[in-house]
Design goal:
With about 300 residues, the protein is an alpha+beta fold. It has three domains: about 5-95, Rossmann fold (3-Layer(aba) Sandwich), CATH 3.40.50; about 105-120 and about 190-295, 2-Layer Sandwich (D-amino Acid Aminotransferase, Chain A, domain 1); about 125-185, Dna Ligase, domain 1 (2-Layer Sandwich). It contains nine helices and 16 strands. The model has no long low-confidence stretch (mean pLDDT about 90).
């Protein structure tokens, strides 16, 4: 009889996440995999050769002794957590891997890599802060409209639409105060103010739904006022999402895709390494992919822990 497998879990609890965790733990138990929950690396300490983290039940867990760590909590990642996540990933499997997580947290790195593999993204420019004044104005004149994006932002936070020199002049003092080393901008893509959010797990298509910007905004993110609607993907959209997820090395991904009306092609806006499950409210409106997503994640954890 083999060693009983143990994995660590840190999964968001709001928006129905607590119920998702219950289902995940139950299905893992059916595979004789014990899941230790609430392992937030923010509460961990590293000493000698161990990273010790306290679970939600008060247990002190030596993280490096686990068979796998499943980290799934967007928007709460501190530098300390990521530092420990990186170290832990060198000795045990993690979902997503640290490299994939770090890549998809950075919009420039993601766009650069996707472009290298033939995936269309919005046109972008990255420049050193000392060149920003002259370079960004030149870029604005060429493009007409552009979006300033923090490379490590999420949920639409910090995105700024720049349509003229006056808007750029207002933004620059603010950016200079932030002491940024570089600035990243994307050409504003003319689209119908809606996108496709395509969930991929372990290379398999899980689901697709649409998000539409509010009347007073151009961002489709829910946190920015966007709304969810049922949407069927085309085969092309699914294949683009699968390819983007694979290129980024993500075991779990939510790929945001829009249709560029001028270039008449689908464009990947972002690859999200921690795409949310459907909330109870969204499930009532017909988004019923949670069970399929949980099953695929459990299958993957089962396989990866056997391999390790």
């Amino acid at each position: 009889m083999g060693k009983k497998r143990k994995i660590g879990v840190w999964l968001y609890q709001n928006g129905g996440g607590d119920k998702i965790q219950e289902k995940l733990v139950k299905k893992l138990k059916e595979r004789e995999i014990h899941a230790i929950t609430g392992l937030n690396l923010r509460n961990a300490i590293a000493k000698n050769k161990s990273i010790i983290c306290t679970s939600d039940k008060g247990e002190e867990i030596k993280m490096e002794k686990l068979d796998l760590f499943f980290s799934y909590n967007a928007g709460e990642q501190t530098q300390y957590q990521m530092f420990l996540y990186q170290a832990l990933n060198r000795v045990i499997p993690t979902l997503n891997s640290y490299d994939a997580f770090a890549l998809t947290e950075d919009k420039f790195q993601t766009a650069f890599l996707l472009r290298q593999h033939g995936i269309a993204t919005a046109d972008y420019h990255l420049c050193h802060r000392d060149d920003a004044d002259k370079y960004l104005l030149k870029t604005l004149k060429k493009w007409g409209k552009m979006i300033y994006k923090p490379t490590d932002g999420w949920g639409g936070v910090g995105l700024t639409k720049i349509e003229n020199k006056a808007a750029l002049d207002m933004l620059m003092p603010f950016l200079n105060q932030m002491d940024l080393r570089f600035l990243y901008v994307e050409k504003f893509v003319k689209y119908d103010n809606s996108d496709f959010r395509v969930d991929i797990v372990d290379g398999e298509f899980v689901s697709c739904y649409g998000r539409k910007a509010s009347k007073d905004d151009w961002r489709t993110n829910i946190t920015s006022g966007g709304s969810v609607f049922l949407r069927e993907p085309t085969d092309e959209v699914i294949e683009i999402a699968k390819k983007a997820a694979k290129i980024c090395g993500t075991d779990i991904a939510g790929v945001d895709i829009i249709y560029d009306l001028e270039k008449e092609q689908y464009v990947v806006l972002e690859v999200n390494g921690i795409p949310a499950f459907a909330t109870p409210k969204q499930e009532k409106m017909g988004l019923d992919f949670n069970n399929k997503k949980i099953d695929l994640i459990v299958d993957m954890i089962d396989r990866k822990t056997k391999e390790s």
